[in-house]
Amino acid sequence: MKKQICKRCKLFVEAQQCPVCKDSNFANGWQGRIMVLNGTKSFIAKQVNMTHNGEYAIKVK
Ligand SMILES: [Zn+2]
Question: CB within 5 A of ion ligand 1: which residues?
Answer without folding.
Answer: 6, 8-9, 18, 20-21, 23
